[in-house]
Amino acid sequence: xxxxxxxxxxxxxxxxxxxxxxxxxxxxxxxxxxxxxxxxxxxxxxxxxxxxxxxxxxxxxxxxxxxxxxxxxxxxxxxxxxxxxxxxxxxxxxxxxxxxxxxxxxxxxxxxxxxxxxxxxxxxxxxxxxxxxxxxxxxxxxxxxxxxxxxxxxxxxxxxxxxxxxxxxxxxxxxxxxxxxxxxxxxxxxxxxxxxxxxxxxxxxxxxxxxxxxxxxxxxxxxxxxxxxxxxxxxxxxxxxxxxxxxxxxxxxxxxxxxxxxxxxxxxxxxxxxxxxxxxxxxxxxxxxxxxxxxxxxxxxxxxxxxxxxxxxxxxxxxxxxxxxxxxxxxxxxxxxxxxxxxxxxxxxxxxxxxxxxxxxxxxxxxxxxxxxxxxxxxxx
Length: 381
Prior knowledge:
The chain is mostly helical. The protein has two domains: about 75-225, no CATH class; about 265-380, no CATH class. It has helices spanning about 5-25, 35-70, 80-110, 115-145, 155-185, 190-235, 240-245, 270-290, 295-310, 320-330, 345-350, 355-370. It starts with a helix and ends in a 10-residue tail after the last helix.
């Protein structure tokens, strides 16, 4: 039997195995006679493999999302888990309805204007029905998330067409029935015009919810496409920078590495503006402490400043080894509750100690480059 998901997993595994093989080759000491051209070809192959893996994972996630959406059934919703929420919600809303009706009756009697009762009554119940639908939809979404399921377009449309539509229809008929009992109680004829107005208001409310949840369903479809394509954009964001970083010591691919001229410092592959901002923030934090130690709180402030300056995602600016680890983390957690690390603040808050250590090392080197920039004379002087 054809298993498309298994084929994707095997293809991804093979490409990752080749990537690990290349990493081992590049990690070995450079032997005499090895040219920059051969290293360039290995790095380019690894980058192409990373891009291919990201595309395969994105397509695999898209197909998984599509399969889950197509196979959704209303019975998949855990009713015992849902009932505990909807029961409390119904009790709360019925109490509010009774309290609101008593208040409206009292205020209409106090004002002496009986004709103002129905407009206020309709306004109250329309607002209550809208809020009830909002909380009911939130209860369904919370239940679905507690089942560790993504918000599928089919799920949103099912809640719209069944739960929300049934609630609004029930509220419409319930208010009509209460108005009939009130007319009998006060011995007045039922106001057909008022009943017609109430029916039209509830129809408009139902249409608003129809459009709103259809928009959310469409947004969920676009969100799935965007999320599945996210890994590819992350993997490719630092491709050019990483290639230049690895080849910064070689100007000619045909010249052996051992014959390359020595340069002053390490070649920078990051924008000068990033180096200046990051280095200045790191130096300012050290000066504030009066030591080389930068606290975690200061690191969070630096992360917020980098985010405000739009130096994102971090994988684009981190050094190659740490950037690769962060890309792997993002790819692994693209559909998890935590999600991918796309800002420096997220990196400090959620990432592991290796990622934070890589950020500290990068900031320290930017600071050193900022303070020593005048030591290296400009070319041509």
